[in-house]
Amino acid sequence: MSSRVFWFSRQPSDTTQHSSTSGSPQTFDTPYVWRPSKRPVPLTTVSFKCPECEKLLPSERSLATHKHAVHVLKRYGEEWAPDGARLLGCNDCSRTFAREADLRQHRINRHTTVDVKELGGAAVATVKSSAPENVDFEADTNNGTCATQRLPQQRRKQRLSSIMALQRSVRLSSGYHMPALGLGSGSIDEAPSDEFRTSAEEALRVGYRHIDTAWSYRTEGKIGKAIKSSNVNRSEIFITSKIWPTMAGRVKESVLKSLSDLGTDYLDLLLIHWPFAQKTPAGASPYDQKHMSAENLDRNISRIDTWRAMEALVDEGLVRSIGVSNFNIRMLNELMPKARIQPAVNQIELHPYLPQHELVAFCQKNHIIVVSYGPLGGAFKRPVLRDDPKIQEIAKRLGKTASQVLISWSIQRGVVTIPKSLNPKRIAENFQDFVLPEEDMKTLNNLTNRKRYYAANLLWKIDIFEDEQLKAPLAKI
């Protein structure tokens, strides 16, 4: 008769088994090998059971490693992954593996050709699936091999970034998950209704599950119709909207209007669009941005006043997570000590010409997810970011578009990215995952050109970004 292994956890209900020699119940605190007509022989001192999948492991350390590799990475991505965590993904299907040998054998058995990226001497591939949320993460502890390994910092960051892009989600401080890539809709409110609705439907068909909009964009009604006709469950879609400065004192009214237009009963994320309040001139529409100016600043409504109104909407269940947009470090330091609910997100303009390294580092240190708007630069503003010679060279060498290079650069920094487009082909292209080599990341990080494409501070004469290099007289906020 072949040997069988009995594993027992420390829980009393799991430790009672029948011995074959005596036929009476015996309780063991350790795992044993059962052999006919022989006394049980202990294999190790104790075993630990994973509470989520009931896998048993020989030590607390291996249990922690297993939980991080299998469960934490699957749910939360790079932001909450442990040091050294790694998973390898197959390009042709949604399978992932903990060991290179397993990935290699899988490729031989299941696929004839797989495009694998070589990073740091190890094969790391990304999944080209239209439904990345269904990726089945696995870990293999056979032969004592654990699912995580100690790696140099740069290689570890590369692998974790590829995992983040693979599953396309990060965990917010509120506990909810936010897809790492979304569809932006700013500055396209003048597009024909059918055109933008069709674009939003195409994005949902391709696999986008994150749509960024705002009360002031006038796209919420079009997005609501696209969601309704897409046959995608509302619970699968992450919707962000924002409070325009003219509505800073009428937060609930603004949100109820957004919910009505979107055809939903809650927002996944609500942001303060700009860090100041504005008065609406008599007879003017709060939508009308031409009245945005230093003269119309409303200093009777503070940022914390708006924030507390947003916190109340979380309590009511109308909003799940709240955050800010276009806030600098000083503004965040001012808000966080007074906030009952900490900001989950700071949405800022971010691209290689405006990398904002210091602000990104501050947000990540304080568990605030950075969201990048304008990741491709201004489409019709000079200099055109995508035409930069170094970006073009990288794109040509890797066989990618300049937009794909810029999106990957952003995601690999741990930044949620929301490029916008009305072109179905570009919408699909922007959704493709790949990992930029470390040398190309360094090249983009070190570009010396500096350009803020969305310079609302100069347009409105309000010192939003507190840029000390600007000499123009701007109103303080």
Automatic annotation (TrEMBL):
Keywords in alphabetical order: Metal-binding, NADP, Oxidoreductase, Zinc, Zinc-finger
SUPFAM superfamilies membership: beta-beta-alpha zinc fingers, NAD(P)-linked oxidoreductase
Similarity-based family: Belongs to the aldo/keto reductase family.
Domain C2H2-type: 48-76, 88-112
Extent of the signal sequence: none
Compositionally biased spans, kind Polar residues: 10-29
CDD domains: AKR_AKR1-5-like (cd19071)
Molecular function terms from GO: oxidoreductase activity, acting on the CH-OH group of donors, NAD or NADP as acceptor; zinc ion binding
Region (Disordered): 1-31
Name of the protein in question: C2H2-type domain-containing protein
Family annotation (Pfam families): Aldo_ket_red, zf-C2H2_6
InterPro entries attached to this UniProt entry: AKR, Aldo/ket_reductase_CS, NAD(P)_OxRdtase_dom_sf, NADP_OxRdtase_dom, Znf_C2H2_sf, Znf_C2H2_type
